């Protein structure tokens, strides 16, 4: 998450920036801190800034932007950052937009802390009085007169940033005069949609990685489909085998039936032939008996006629 906190000196930007750092795991980028760190590290940009500051001159925008560019490229700033004290002018804001665009980044929100300058002055007076009473050292710039000058500079240089970011649809405003915890709750409420968008973006690469990993899963699917095909083929073969066995059994049954029928027919033929033979034999016997009877009758007739002739003689 990348944020900018806007507001005059004493509005509580530093306090809210630290709470955002804790909540979102991002880093706080303060131009003063970054300039001092760059000078201490002896970087090329830091050495240039050191020479300008030692000469009592204001550090130009190009140097400040270069220091910020080096800072946001560091590992701890990859998750995001909150800018405190930068940008201070519209040209700085435009330079920041170009810097982020070159890196494929964008701001997630610009939060303005609206305050009453009169109340801020009274707060400074009270704080200085309390620190003096406790015997604490008071900073040279921590007094009502210095604050008045800083407020005038803010109105002249930094206040136009609200119109710049409002025109881009990025400006969100909270009441900086509310209790600190209430201000924190208000800021978190304004950033909730942006926070959800950041989480979805973080999940998107994982989804892409899963979709890229899908081709690796295709062989498994093909193996599964091959198994299914083999099972289907096995079932088809078993069905075909069952069909063939049924056909063969039906054919065997038909053959056995035909054999049985043929046997039955042959038996029937044998019986009928036997019957015909028996009938023929009986007929032959009856004819022979008839012939014998005739012959016997003829012999009897002949013998009787011979007897008659003998008696006549």
What overall geometry do the principal axes of the alpha carbons give?
elongated
Strand order, main sheet: write it out.
Answer: 2-3-1-4-5
Q: CATH topology of the domain at 2-26 and 79-204, what is it called?
A: Rossmann fold
Q: What composes the largest sheet?
A: 5 strands, parallel
Care to count the β-strands?
5
Low-confidence stretches: 215-222
Helix count, per DSSP? 9
CATH architecture of the domain at 2-26 and 79-204: 3-Layer(aba) Sandwich
Protein model, in words:
With 313 residues, the protein is α/β, with parallel strands linked by helices. It has a domain at 2-26 and 79-204: 3-Layer(aba) Sandwich (Rossmann fold), CATH 3.40.50.300. The chain contains nine helices and five strands, in the order βαβαααβαβαααβα. It has a five-stranded parallel beta sheet, with helices on both faces. Helix 3 runs antiparallel to helix 4 (61-72) and helix 4 packs parallel to helix 5. The N and C termini lie far apart (173 Å).
Summarize this structure briefly.
This protein is of the alpha/beta class and 313 residues long. It has a domain at 2-26 and 79-204: P-loop containing nucleotide triphosphate hydrolases (Rossmann fold, 3-Layer(aba) Sandwich), CATH 3.40.50.300. The protein contains 9 helices and 5 strands, in the order βαβαααβαβαααβα.
């Amino acid at each position: 998450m990348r944020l900018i906190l806007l507001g005059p000196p004493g509005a509580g930007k530093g306090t809210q920036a630290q709470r955002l750092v804790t909540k979102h795991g991002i880093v706080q980028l303060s131009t003063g801190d970054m300039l001092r760190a760059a000078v201490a590290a002896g970087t090329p940009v830091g050495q240039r800034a050191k020479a300008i500051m030692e000469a009592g001159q204001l550090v130009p925008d190009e140097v400040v932007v270069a220091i910020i560019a080096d800072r946001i490229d560091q590992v701890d700033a990859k998750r995001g950052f909150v800018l405190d004290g930068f940008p201070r002018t519209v040209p700085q804001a435009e330079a920041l937009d170009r810097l982020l665009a070159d890196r494929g980044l964008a701001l997630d929100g610009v939060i303005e802390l609206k305050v009453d300058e009169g109340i801020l002055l009274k707060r400074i007076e009270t704080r200085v009085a309390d620190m003096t009473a406790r015997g604490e050292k008071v900073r040279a710039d921590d007094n009502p007169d210095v604050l008045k000058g800083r407020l005038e500079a803010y109105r002249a240089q930094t206040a136009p940033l609200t119109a710049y970011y409002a025109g881009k649809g990025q400006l969100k405003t909270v009441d900086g005069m509310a209790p600190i915890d209430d201000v924190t709750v208000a800021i978190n409420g304004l950033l909730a949609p942006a926070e959800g968008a950041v989480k979805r973006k973080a999940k998107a690469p994982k989804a892409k990685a899963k979709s890229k990993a899908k081709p690796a899963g295709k062989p498994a699917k093909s193996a599964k489909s091959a198994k299914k095909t083999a099972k289907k083929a096995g079932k088809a073969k078993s069905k075909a085998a069952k069909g063939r066995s049924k056909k063969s059994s039906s054919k065997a049954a038909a053959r056995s039936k035909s054999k049985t029928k043929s046997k039955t027919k042959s038996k029937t033929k044998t019986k009928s032939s036997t019957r015909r033979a028996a009938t023929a034999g009986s007929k032959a016997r009856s004819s022979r008996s008839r012939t014998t009877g005739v012959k016997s009758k003829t012999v009897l007739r002949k013998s009787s006629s011979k007897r008659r002739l003998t008696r006549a003689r």
